[in-house]
Amino acid sequence: xxxxxxxxxxxxxxxxxxxxxxxxxxxxxxxxxxxxxxxxxxxxxxxxxxxxxxxxxxxxxxxxxxxxxxxxxxxxxxxxxxxxxxxxxxxxxxxxxxxxxxxxxxxxxxxxxxxxxxxxxxxxxxxxxxxxxxxxxxxxxxxxxxxxxxxxxxxxxxxxxxxxxxxxxxxxxxxxxxxxxxxxxxxxxxxxxxxxxxxxxxxxxxxxxxxxxxxxxxxxxxxxxxxxxxxxxxxxxxxxxxxxxxxxxxxxxxxxxxxxxxxxxxxxxxxxxxxxxxxxxxxxxxxxxxxxxxxxxxxxxxxxxxxxxxxxxxxxxxxxxxxxxxxxxxxxxxxxxxxxxxxxxx
Length: 346
Prior knowledge:
This protein has 346 residues and is an alpha/beta fold. It contains 18 helices and 14 strands. The longest helix is centred in the C-terminal third of the chain and has 18 residues, at 231-248.
C-alpha cells in the first residue's frame, strides 16, 4: 500500500534531497506518494506543520529548536529524524557598500576579522556624518544565518540589532530587498547570494564556511508526537532521502540536479545560476574571480545524521543574538529534538 505524505519546502538549494526524493523516484521506490508543497516563509512551514497541514517539512534547525522551546510566539514540539544538509550559506552586500568596505579594509577582505573591522569603520563614518544605520537581513530570526551574522560582526565588537538594523527577509525576497535598498546586506542559503551576484547588484563578502565549517543548517522536521506515532512513515521518508543523498553526491549528477531545482514549481531560477553552486564554484561579484570551495554545501550521509551536539551551537547563537538565556533544561530539550536513533534505524 502506497503512503501519501505532504512535505513542505522553501526554494533553496538545500531542499535538494526532498526534491530528488520525489523527482528521481526514490520516494516511490520506498512506497511513498510524496506531495511537495512550496512555501513562502519559514513561519508558514512551521505553522502548517504544527497544525498538520503538512506531514513533514524542510526546516531551519534553529527554527525547530525555537518552536520546541516555545520561543518566538509558537510552542510546537518538533523531532528531527534526519538532517538535509550542512553549510551552504553566504553573506552578500550591495556593490556600493562592498566598494566602501574595500576602501576601508586593512588587509584581505576574505578574512572575516578584516571585513568585520571594515564594516565597523564604515558604520563609524556613517554615524559621524549623521547617516542612518545600515540594515542587514537574515531569512528568519531563528536561523544559522542570524547566528553567522552575529559571529561575523562580533569579530569587530559589533552587535546585530544595535550597531546595524536587523530585518527578516524570506530567501526568495532577498535579491529584491538588496536591489531596492531596503537592506544593505543579507545572509542566506544558496542560491540567493549567487542570484544577487548574477543580477549585478551584490557582492559576496564571506561564505558561511569561512566562519564555521559543518554548520548546522536545514533539517527534515516532524511534529514530535507524529515522529513517534508514525515510525514507519518516518523510516520510509528517511530511506528515500538517503537514496537521494547517494545520488546527489555523485558529481556526474549535479547538472541534472540543477535541472530539477530550476523548475518553476521548485526554485524557478536558471540552471546557469544553480550549476556553479552545486559544483562549489562561488561567483563573488565586484570584479573578483570565482572561488572554488570543496564541499561548500554538504549532502553526504554523514552530514545527514541528526546530531544532538548541534543543539549547543544553536543555543549559543540564540543567546548571542539576545533571544534566550540558556538553562540546563533548555539544553536537554534542544538535544532531544535531534533523533539519531530514528536515523540509524532507516
